[in-house]
Structure formats: structure tokens, C-alpha cells
Amino acid sequence: MREDTRTPDDQIADRIARLDALHERLASAIDRLVTGQDWRRAIEFAARFRSRSFNNTLLIWVQHAAAHEEGRVPDPYPTRVAGYKQWKALGRSVDKGQAGYQILAPVTARVAVTEDGLWRRLGKGEKPEAGETAKSRMVGVRPAYVWDVSQTSGDPLPTQPAPALLEGEAPPGLWDGLAHQIQAAGFTLHEAPTAAAIDGANGVTHWLKRTVHVRADMDPAARVKTLAHELGHVILHDRDDVDAVVHRGIAEVEAESFALMVAASHGMNTERYTVPYVATWASRVPGQDPVTTIQKTATRVRTAALQALEQLETPQIPDGEPPSSSISTVVADSQAGPRQTASAAQSALPRPTQSSTGAEGPGV
């Protein structure tokens, strides 16, 4: 490996410049998620790469698309993504000339934490003082690289089973699993005979009454998708939020996106899902630019959906990690391997708005 002869200041300046470029590419990628179909594809893609943050998923998506257009990879979508050393551990090598996909990897450090939660970074060999505990903490991010399996050669990977559903069929056990989570949150679940019984909606969540209603006259797939939408309201939206009415559009986008990610993780056909026009609601949050709004919303949806999926005992599609991998995503993401060129970006944020009554309308 060639020795790095740059000064520490030059190395820091180079890292900052690369991070700035990554964040600019990320903002550009997020800014393009302006229509319901763009948003749906991004959420569905994130469902296939659940082990990655939404922003790193977006980075991988746009860079793989560029590689496909350039003829460097055979398929338009990646299937398994890992770091250089992770592929090596699995008996595979990155093919010569294949540029890695640049993502943001965590930088951790030893810190001393007090009982009040205050922390300070520990120097090399430094020990915590009385009343402090030494812990590892994320203190920043740095550029790192990953490669799709199609960019590697070597030992074959085991085939992982994936759910296969017929049109209109619901994944076995999914209704019961979602219903259990709704009931565990203190809500009672009811069937509505028709949409007319719940004001023309497919489902309704009522926070004051702590009830969830779902139409009974739909096919199983539509009913379980609606139930997932209402669970999204239950998990994400609190009737006491001040901005509930102002940002009702965001609440509906979040609930529908939550349902979309749950459905996609179970191999359900998501083509019929519709999400409200993203640019419209994202531009209506006072004091916040649309890119930040979209980024926060996507992060909230992914976090909530992963929590729900972890509680389900249902067959789910693979999460984008190579099978039989003993190396965690965090470690793999931090293994840059050979230097390569790349394009696109990532980060993560908090929580926007909610509504006292979440209603899923027909086709929404």
C-alpha cells in the first residue's frame, strides 16, 4: 500500500472536502424525490436494504444506477452490498476496475460519560475519572466504499429464500402480527363492513377513542396493507402534537410509506401503492427546506418500520447483506478498501408532525 505523505492538516482538509461533496450529492438525490412514484421507489428500495440507513441506501441506489448506465454492472438494481474486507471474508474479490459506491461510515471514539449523560472524548491511554464510565460513541462520519456482488468474483453465495405471493394474497401471519402491535399500543381493532361506515376510507385510526377500523370488504392483501398504514399512524403520530393539522399531509405520507416498507419487506406487489405528491407537503413546513423535510420523514419512516418488522415472526425478503456474513454492517461500512471514485450521499435526523385521526382513503 502506498504511504500517505500528506500532512495531518492536508488529510483533514481532504476528508472535509470529500464529506462536503457527499452531502451535496445526497441533497441533490433527495431533491429529486418530488413525486409519489419517485418516493415509492426509494422506500421500496430501502426495504430491500434494511441494514443500511435510508441515506446510505439512496447513495447506493444512485451510484449503482450510474454504473448500470455506464455498462459496469449487468442489472439496474443491486442485490447484495458489502465492504471490501467483508467480501474478502466471504471468499470473493472486487473485480479490477470496479469503482466502489461511496457512503458515509461512522467514526467512533472512546468517551467518558457521567451519570447525567454528559460526555467528553478520552485521549489515548486516558482513563475515566471518578463518576465516569468509558464507552464507545459515534463522533462523526467519514467516506467509505461498498461494492455490489455483481462487482465481485469468487465463491458462490448461498441462496436466501424470499416470499412469493399471489395477487391479492396477504403474507401468512402478517395480519396477526400487525394486529398484535396495534393492540399492544393500547388500541382496539375493529372491522368496518364498508368504506361508507368509516367516511369513505379504507381504514381509520382514532386517537381519542384509541380505536383502529379497517374495511372488511377488501381482498386480504389490501386489508393487511391498510392495517400496516394504520399501525404507522399508531407508532408515528400522537394526537397531542401541536402541528397535527398543519402537517396532516406529512402524517399521511409517513403512514403510507411505513405501510409500503412493511409490504415491500414481505415481497408484496407495491405498484398499486400511491403516496401524495411529495414536493407539495415538503415545501409547506415553515422554517425548513424541502430537502431536510424529506430526509427527516424518510428517516422516521425507516426507523419505525424496522422496529415493527423486528417484532414480526413472518418470512421477509433478504436485507441486502451477504448471507452467512459474520461482519456487521457498521464494520463493513467503515472498511474502505482500495481508493475508488464514486458519486452520491447520506445522513439522518428526527421527527416532524402527526394527526389525531389518521384515515387511509381508497387508493391512498
TrEMBL record:
Ranges for region Disordered: 313-364
Residue ranges of every copy of the N-terminal domain listed in the record: 37-127
Record domain IrrE N-terminal-like: where: 203-271
Taxonomic lineage from the root: Bacteria, Bacillati, Actinomycetota, Actinomycetes, Micrococcales
Highest taxon of the lineage: Bacteria
Annotated protein name in UniProt: Antirestriction protein ArdC
GO MF, any single term: single-stranded DNA binding
A Pfam family it matches: ArdcN
